[in-house]
Backbone:
C-alpha cells in the first residue's frame, strides 16, 4: 500500500505560495545588493562576459520538452490510484530520458566551446579561454540538473511545495554568501562561477532529499525504464511544450516587430515596457504556478466539484493578486519609469499600461488553463496559445504602423481577450458545469471592487501630492496597495469567503510554524485554531 502524505490542498497551496514569495524576495533582494558589489569587484567587462556565457545556456531549458509537468501529471494519477510500482516506473523512466537529454546537452556544449565561442566577435584570446571554461562549468550544471529534475517533480506531485522552496531558499542564500566570500578574498570570475555552480549542484541533492521525504517508497532503478511510459508522457508533454513556446512568442515577438519597423532605439524603449510587465506577471503568478499538481489530483479523481471550486477560487485569488499589483504599477507607471530610466523612456509608459492589462488576463486565467489540462483538453489550450501568437504577430505588424509602440502592445492584448477570456474561460466553465456569468461574478467581483477603491485613492494621491522622487513613488504606491488590501478584505470578499480564507490562512501559518520548529530541532505542538483539516475545503 502506498504511503501517501498529501494533506489539505488549500493549506499546501497557501504554505507553498508563502514560501515561494520568500524565495522570490531573497532572489530579488540579494540580487539588488550583490549586483553592484559583483560588478565592482569583477569589472564591467568580466561581468558582461559572465552574463554573455550564461545567456548561451538558457536555451537548453527548451530541451525539457514540457516533460516537467507531464511527469507530475502521471505521478499524480498513479499516486491517486495508490500504485507505487507505477510511480517508480515513471520516475525511473524519466531519469533515463533526462540522462539522454543531458548527453545531448553535453554534446552541444562541446560544439559551442570548440566552435562557437572562438568565433564570437569582439572577444580577445584571453577572454575566449575564460568564456570556454565558464561555458564548460555552466554546461556541467545543466547536464547534471536534467536527470535530477525528476526529484522535484516527485515532490510537487505530493504537493510538497514548501520543502522544495526551503531548498531553493537555502541555495539562494548559500550562493550569495559564497559570492561575497569569494570576491572579498580576491577570487576571480572562474573561481566565483565554479564555487556557485558547485553549490547549485549540491542543491540538487536537497531536492532528492525532499522527494524521498514526501515519498519514502520511491525507488529509482534503471531496469524499470518503460518505453511505453515514455511515449505516454511524451504525447501529453509535447502539447505543454507547444504552449510554453507559443506563450514565449506572444510576449517576445514584439521586439522583433518594433526593431523591423521603428529601429533599435525604439526597441530599447519597448524593452522597458516588456521588463516591467514581466515583473508584474512574476510577482503575481507564484500562487498559480503551484496549482498544476493540485488540479491534476482532482482530475485524476474525477472530482468535478473540486475542479469547479478550483476554477472559481483559483481564478479569484490570482485575479485579486494581479489586480492589486497592476493598480499600483499602472497608477504610478509614469513617475516610476521616468524615475528609473530617465525622461527619454517616457514612451515606455503607454505600451506598459496596455501590457499590464494583458498580464492581468494571463495570470487570472491560470486556473482555467489547468482545469482544461486536468480534464484532458490540453489540445484546446495549445491551439488557443498558437492562435494568439499568430494573431499577435499579424496585429502588431498592422498596428505598429498606425499607433506606434502602443499598437504593438495592443497586438498582444487583443488576442488574449478573445483567446483567454472568450474561449478558454468559456470551455473551462462548461467542463466543470458552471455558468460563465456566475464564474465571472464570483471571480472578478472582489478584485473589481477593491481595484476601483484603490484607483480612486491613487488618483487623489497623484493629484494632491505628485511623487517627485523614487522614494515618494514607493511610499505612495505602498499606500495605494494597503488601500487595495483593506478594500479587498472588507468589502471585496463576501463574509463567508472572507471567513474561509482567514481560516485557511491560519492553518497555513500553523503549518509553517510547525515546519520551522521541526527544522530547528524543537518539538513542536501543532496549533489548529479551527479544528481538524477537512478534505472538502476548497482550494483558495
Residues:
Amino acid at each position: 500500500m502506498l504511503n501517501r502524505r498529501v494533506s489539505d490542498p488549500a493549506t499546501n497551496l497557501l504554505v507553498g505560495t508563502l514560501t515561494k514569495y520568500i524565495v522570490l524576495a531573497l532572489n530579488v533582494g540579494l540580487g539588488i545588493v550583490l549586483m553592484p558589489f559583483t560588478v565592482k569587484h569583477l569589472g564591467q567587462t568580466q561581468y558582461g562576459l559572465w552574463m554573455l556565457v550564461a545567456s548561451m545556456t538558457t536555451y537548453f531549458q527548451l530541451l525539457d520538452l514540457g516533460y516537467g509537468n507531464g511527469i507530475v501529471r502521471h505521478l499524480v494519477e498513479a499516486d491517486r490510484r495508490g500504485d507505487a510500482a507505477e510511480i517508480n516506473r515513471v520516475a525511473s523512466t524519466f531519469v533515463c530520458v533526462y540522462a539522454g537529454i543531458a548527453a545531448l546537452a553535453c554534446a552541444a556544449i562541446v560544439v559551442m566551446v570548440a566552435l562557437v565561442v572562438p568565433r564570437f566577435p569582439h572577444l580577445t584570446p584571453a577572454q575566449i579561454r575564460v568564456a570556454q571554461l565558464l561555458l564548460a562549468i555552466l554546461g556541467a550544471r545543466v547536464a547534471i540538473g536534467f536527470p535530477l529534475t525528476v526529484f522535484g517533480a516527485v515532490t510537487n506531485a505530493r504537493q510538497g511545495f514548501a520543502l522544495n522552496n526551503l531548498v531553493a531558499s537555502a541555495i539562494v542564500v548559500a550562493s550569495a554568501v559564497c559570492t561575497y566570500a569569494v570576491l572579498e578574498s580576491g577570487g576571480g570570475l572562474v573561481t566565483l562561477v565554479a564555487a556557485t555552480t558547485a553549490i547549485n549542484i549540491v542543491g540538487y541533492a536537497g531536492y532528492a532529499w525532499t522527494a524521498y521525504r514526501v515519498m519514502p517508497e520511491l525507488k529509482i532503478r534503471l531496469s524499470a525504464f518503460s518505453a511505453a511510459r515514455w511515449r505516454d508522457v511524451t504525447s501529453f508533454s509535447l502539447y505543454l511544450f507547444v504552449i510554453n513556446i507559443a506563450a514565449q512568442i506572444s510576449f517576445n515577438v514584439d521586439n522583433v516587430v518594433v526593431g523591423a519597423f521603428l529601429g533599435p532605439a525604439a526597441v530599447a524603449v519597448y524593452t522597458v515596457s516588456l521588463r516591467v510587465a514581466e515583473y508584474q506577471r512574476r510577482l503575481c503568478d507564484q500562487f498559480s504556478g503551484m496549482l498544476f499538481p493540485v488540479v491534476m489530483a482532482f482530475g485524476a479523481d474525477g472530482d468535478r466539484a473540486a475542479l469547479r471550486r478550483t476554477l472559481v477560487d483559483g481564478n479569484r485569488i490570482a485575479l485579486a493578486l494581479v489586480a492589486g499589483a497592476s493598480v499600483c504599477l499602472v497608477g504610478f507607471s509614469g513617475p516610476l519609469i521616468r524615475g528609473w530610466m530617465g525622461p527619454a523612456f517616457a514612451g515606455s509608459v503607454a505600451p506598459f499600461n496596455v501590457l499590464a492589462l494583458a498580464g492581468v488576463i494571463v495570470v487570472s486565467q491560470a486556473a482555467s488553463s489547468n482545469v482544461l489540462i486536468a480534464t484532458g483538453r490540453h489540445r484546446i489550450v495549445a491551439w488557443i496559445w498558437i492562435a494568439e501568437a499568430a494573431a499577435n504577430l499579424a496585429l502588431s505588424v498592422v498596428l505598429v504602423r498606425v499607433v506606434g509602440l502602443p499598437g504593438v502592445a495592443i497586438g498582444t492584448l487583443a488576442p488574449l481577450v478573445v483567446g483567454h477570456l472568450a474561449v478558454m474561460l468559456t470551455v473551462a466553465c462548461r467542463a466543470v458545469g458552471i455558468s460563465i456569468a456566475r464564474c465571472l461574478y464570483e471571480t472578478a467581483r472582489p478584485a473589481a471592487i477593491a481595484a476601483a477603491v484603490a484607483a480612486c485613492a491613487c488618483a487623489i494621491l497623484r493629484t494632491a501630492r505628485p511623487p517627485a522622487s523614487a522614494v515618494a513613488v514607493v511610499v505612495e504606491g505602498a499606500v495605494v496597495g494597503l488601500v487595495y488590501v483593506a478594500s479587498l478584505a472588507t468589502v471585496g470578499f463576501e463574509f463567508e469567503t472572507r471567513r474561509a480564507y482567514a481560516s485557511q490562512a491560519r492553518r497555513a501559518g500553523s503549518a509553517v510554524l510547525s515546519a520551522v520548529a521541526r527544522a530547528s530541532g524543537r518539538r513542536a505542538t501543532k496549533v489548529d485554531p479551527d479544528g481538524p483539516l477537512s478534505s472538502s475545503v476548497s482550494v483558495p
